[in-house]
Design a protein that fits this description.
Length: about 250
């Protein structure tokens, strides 16, 4: 994409956002890529190095809890040491100025909250939380467990990361909230997601079907590019701050 084209697309995206009444965002691993967190698909992606069937299913946890936990301890370490990047900051600022009503995220790294976003719906859980596989124990941890697999302090059963594994349904309340937000939204910013994982990937369609606009920011075209009103190709950490700067100009902020 040429510089001039990006500038025009950024201006139009800002116009849509500034005149919106209920804008929301859907984010994926690409938003955290510039914070040093690997994405899942593509070159260097997590699923190129690991087989999800072996490390990210409920069956794998039963079969080999140590192996599953080893990967998740690595993901926890990355999440605890990572800092939000300008894309997270831009989304938090867009909420702060009253334009963005909520961020629906597929990310488990907690970085939207760390960056200051107040309304965050986590569709795939949060790697900083653990829960018991037998009882109702659930807790936020301050650091990754030193011994794996960790045991429940209440009942002694196996603990698991509070994230959605392959083949598992999404947390019902998060999915319902996300769906309700999409029904209300007149603009959705879709940032850094391949949009191939369901049901998250169908949320932009819900916005479109309700007559809303979809603005996409990604390094490359994604599964939802065909329905996007605007696709801006570039790094989220570079494009998002530009969009927010324009929105603020339009709002005289
Ligand atoms: P993916 O790894 O599938 O896609 C990442 C997207 O981000 C791709 O479309 C990239 O082009 C884009 N991207 C990479 N770096 C970027 C950057 N700096 N700026 C903008 N875009 C960039 O990740 P997700 O779509 O989040 O599920 O994957 C969805 C789900 O699949 C994840 O939540 C995870 C995984 O299996 C679970 O763990 C349940
Ligand atoms: Zn327990």
């Amino acid at each position: 994409m040429s510089e001039g084209y990006v500038d025009k697309a950024v201006e139009l995206a800002a116009k849509y956002l500034a005149s919106s009444s209920f804008a929301i965002a859907l984010t994926g691993a690409g938003v955290s890529a510039e914070s040093g967190i690997p994405t899942f698909r593509g070159k260097g992606g997590l699923w190129e190095r690991y087989d999800p069937e072996e490390v990210a299913t409920a069956e794998a946890l039963r079969r080999n809890p140590e192996l599953v936990w080893k990967l998740h301890v690595e993901l926890m370490k990355i999440a605890f040491s990572a800092r939000p990047n300008p894309a997270h900051a831009a989304l938090a600022e867009l909420e702060e100025v009253g334009v963005l009503k909520c961020v629906v995220t597929q990310n488990i790294d907690d970085l939207h909250r760390v960056a200051g976003s107040k309304c965050v719906v986590e569709l795939h859980g949060n790697i900083k939380w653990v829960r018991c596989t037998s009882c109702t124990y659930r807790a936020k941890v301050k650091k990754p467990p030193e011994e794996v697999p960790p045991k429940c302090p209440v009942c002694g059963s196996l603990l698991r990361p509070d994230v959605v594994f392959f083949g598992e349904p999404l947390p019902e309340s998060a999915l319902r909230k996300a769906y309700d937000l999409c029904v209300k939204a007149d603009v959705m910013l879709v940032v850094g997601t391949s949009a191939v994982v369901m049901p998250a990937g169908m949320l932009p369609h819900v916005v479109k079907e309700g007559g809303g606009r979809v603005i996409e920011v990604n390094l490359e075209p994604s599964a939802i590019s065909p329905i996007a009103d605007i696709t801006i190709l570039g790094k989220a950490g570079e494009v998002m701050p530009k969009i927010v700067a324009h929105v603020k100009k339009l709002l005289n902020r």
